[in-house]
TrEMBL record:
Catalytic activities: 5,6-dihydrouridine(16) in tRNA + NADP(+) = uridine(16) in tRNA + NADPH + H(+); 5,6-dihydrouridine(17) in tRNA + NAD(+) = uridine(17) in tRNA + NADH + H(+); 5,6-dihydrouridine(17) in tRNA + NADP(+) = uridine(17) in tRNA + NADPH + H(+); 5,6-dihydrouridine(16) in tRNA + NAD(+) = uridine(16) in tRNA + NADH + H(+)
UniProt-recorded name of the protein: tRNA-dihydrouridine(16/17) synthase [NAD(P)(+)]-like
Organism lineage: Eukaryota, Metazoa, Chordata, Craniata, Vertebrata
InterPro entries, alphabetized: Aldolase_TIM, DUS-like_FMN-bd, tRNA_hU_synthase_CS
Pfam families given in the database record: DUF702 (PF05142), Dus (PF01207)
Record-listed E.C. numbers: 1.3.1.88
Region (Disordered): 346-394, 453-472
Cofactors demanded by this protein: FMN
The keyword tRNA processing is annotated on this UniProt entry: yes
Keyword tags: Cytoplasm, Flavoprotein, FMN, NAD, NADP, Nucleus, Oxidoreductase, tRNA processing
């Protein structure tokens, strides 16, 4: 059967999916996908999988894709991060029989993606991306899709999308934020960018960003003309988002936990989901928040969930007529609803003022720094500064280390060869020399071995003795160097 492309792929294979659950690391696992599908989701992605690890590790493949077959979990798109065409294609070939398409992640903005050189940090390398998608489109029996972030410039974003389409991408998901817009700096996604891409390409387009409820989905489709809308955080806080409902949190939590019993996943995934579902309630019951963080078993998580339910039901029973939600929430905290991520200033204020009427402990406040530049430091650096007020993060004040003559790494301050330890060890071994600075005593140990051989053998023929002792001594030093 020929591989479907573009609109035909979206209509027939993806069944004209409009409501899509995003690929989320450690969060869009099978159990969560099944819960989302029960409540309106029409298409799901796997969590982002690392192509290199997927290719070499059979356990990783089994845990993330080759587990128990589930016919309900279709249509399904498997997402990979990769930066090598051959590795990407080989991993995709191992996955293609378990899904309906393979997606290349070009949207991850996190530091791990920067270190690994994948995700949104490939968006300037158009030649590489063109080769990756072209090769995948030729080799795979299922379509290749891409998820991208936008450039600040709309025209460049459009050209980027057209390049991906030309290379063989059959469906494009556009997250309307740049790679710099993340965490507290996420801000509002640009639907204008998404609309421009939709008009410029001839393949189906999904929109991602600003989706908190069903009315957002409908408005996004109307304004941008996209084929479908993808939700990540909105879905995590309300799995019934695509149904247009705001159910009681414990209803969703209990249903999810039942699915986890049938389709187990790591406990960290389950805990993270309950932190999202119960987010607003856990601001009220801080003690249960701590218990949820510490619990070690699924049964323990179920017990915490049950206690949260009882607390909420008790609160409902004691509720006064006409009472309204607190903290500016649209609904009472026990109802599934969006969480609006605060900006940097709001977050610091929130950390400083947090706490509850019941005496719950809030997060430790980050104090303003004396130099007045605290907002320029990351949250982790602010915490370090709080613990040690004299600490400086000025690069010009950091100590400068002399470099190894051989490899450029910092050299040992007392090294006789002006090298790092690794280079020094190789040279000292080769020359049978000592370096007290690095604790390498090849020459000393060699001479001791000769002395020991003399004491064992007594007086021998000088010529034979010297040669024999040298060979034995050298063997001992070589063995000792190998052991170290």
């Amino acid at each position: 059967m020929p591989k479907l492309r573009g609109e035909a792929f979206w209509r027939e294979t993806l069944r004209s999916a409009h409501y899509v659950v995003a690929p989320m690391v450690d969060q869009s696992e099978l159990a969560w996908r099944l819960l989302s599908r029960r409540h309106g989701a029409q298409l799901c992605y796997t969590p982002m999988l690392h192509a290199q690890v997927f290719l070499r590790d059979a356990n990783y493949r089994r845990e993330n894709l080759y587990g128990e077959a589930c016919p309900e979990d279709r249509p399904l798109i498997v997402q990979f991060c990769a930066n090598d065409p051959e590795v990407f294609v080989q991993a995709a070939l191992l996955a293609q029989d378990y899904c309906d398409a393979i997606d290349l992640n070009l949207g991850c903005p996190q530091m791990i993606a920067k270190r690994g050189h994948y995700g949104a940090f490939l968006q300037e390398e158009w030649d590489l991306l063109h080769r990756m998608i072209l090769l995948a489109n030729e080799k795979l029996s299922v379509p290749i899709t891409c998820k991208i972030r936008v450039f600040p410039d709309i025209d460049k974003t459009v050209k980027y999308a057209q390049m991906l389409e030309k290379a063989g991408c059959q469906l494009l998901t556009v997250h309307g934020r740049t790679k710099e817009q993340k965490g507290p700096l996420a801000g509002v996604a640009s639907w204008e960018h998404i609309q421009a891409v939709r008009k410029a390409v001839n393949i189906p387009v999904f929109a991602n960003g600003n989706i908190q409820c069903l009315s957002d989905v409908e408005e996004c489709i109307r304004k941008t003309g996209v084929h479908g809308v993808m939700s990540a955080e909105g879905n995590l806080h309300n799995p019934a988002l695509f149904e247009g409902r705001n159910p009681l949190v414990w209803e969703m939590a209990e249903e999810y936990l039942e699915i986890v019993r049938k389709y187990p996943c790591p406990l960290s995934y389950v805990r993270a989901h309950l932190f999202k579902l119960w987010h607003h309630t856990l601001q009220v019951y801080q003690q249960l928040r701590e218990e949820l963080a510490k619990v070690k078993t699924l049964e323990g998580i179920i017990d915490v969930n049950r206690e949260l339910k009882l607390r909420c039901q008790e609160e409902i029973a004691n509720q006064k007529e006409g009472e309204k939600p607190k903290e500016g929430l649209p609904f009472f905290h026990w109802i599934c609803q969006p969480y609006i991520r605060p900006g940097p200033k709001e977050r610091c204020r929130e950390n400083g003022d947090s706490g509850t009427e019941k005496g719950g402990r809030g997060k430790r406040a980050l104090e303003e720094q004396e130099d007045g530049n605290s907002e320029l430091l990351s949250k982790n650096k602010q915490k370090k500064k709080l613990r040690n007020p004299n600490k400086s993060f000025d690069p010009s004040l950091k100590p400068k280390y002399a470099k190894c003559d051989q490899c450029g790494n910092p050299k040992g301050n007392k090294c006789v060869f002006n090298m790092c330890r690794g280079c020094c060890k190789r040279r000292a071994f080769k020359e049978i020399a000592d370096c007290p600075g690095h604790g390498l005593l090849f020459k000393t140990k060699y001479e001791k071995s000769l002395s020991w051989q003399h004491s064992q053998r007594g007086i021998q023929t000088p010529e034979i003795s010297q040669r024999g002792d040298a060979e034995v001594g050298e063997t001992a030093v070589l063995k000792e160097a190998g052991d170290s």
